[in-house]
Amino acid sequence: MAVQGSQRRLLGSLNSTPTAIPQLGLAANQTGARCLEVSISDGLLLSLGLVSLVENALVVATIAKNRNLHSPMYCFICCLALSDLLVSGSNVLETAVILLLEAGALVARAAVLQQLDNVIDVITCSSMLSSLCFLGAIAVDRYISIFYALRYHSIVTLPRARRAVAAIWVASVVFSTLFIAYYDHVAVLLCLVVFFLAMLVLMAVLYVHMLARACQHAQGIARLHKRQRPVHQGFGLKGAVTLTILLGIFFLCWGPFFLHLTLIVLCPEHPTCGCIFKNFNLFLALIICNAIIDPLIYAFHSQELRRTLKEVLTCSW
Question: Which of 79, 126, 150, 272 gives the lowest tally of CB atoms within 10 Å of its CB?
């Protein structure tokens, strides 16, 4: 993915540089100092991408098959899976081309690789942006379903959900194209970092508010059964753990990549920042891992979806 001019992965493959093996070690940066680097091989990236690709394709196929899942909530979940599928698919395509180039099985001119790299970068960037947007959309949908339960079906209608989905996809493609075209401008990188922080704050505020409301509801039920303290504390602890896992995974998987972008703005020439830049493939692998985890959090908890998934796996169309 194009984050710096020197990180054009496809064009870099023309130099036939050896692929790094998965290891944790010390590497020398441009100043000669030694720094910690986690090397991720292209084979590992390819494997992660394929797992995510298959998993998210199953989610999309499952939701498409069952008309009972054609609701606004599952529309957002399906689009999240589609976004993650595109992230993984673009990574698989790019990594496969790199491996073929390094093996000498594929010969292409630099201009062709440049165009292919640009296309892959736009797909990757737009799918990353849309993935973040749909995570936020799912949080908003759940918030409305809890705080405006009686009016939920009149507020969140399928036509409105479809318009929101269309707007997210169009905005993601437009902004990702601008990002790839002007990736060396500080303002573009800052916009991406601010966007990530905004999504993080939005999700944290909404889910914390939902947890507080759920705890109040549990406390009210406990009072009716005269078991206020044990039930309330147990529910609150379980909810806090769930919330911590949800936001923790989001921050752990996406945070390093946006830290990478932030450091490009703040200290592009500093030796310490140079050490972090060397771990770009690790940050990309974490995003792909998030694409693997998303279906487990947002999709496979549904009994209806799991039942339909079994039918898809057994080809019961």
Answer: 150
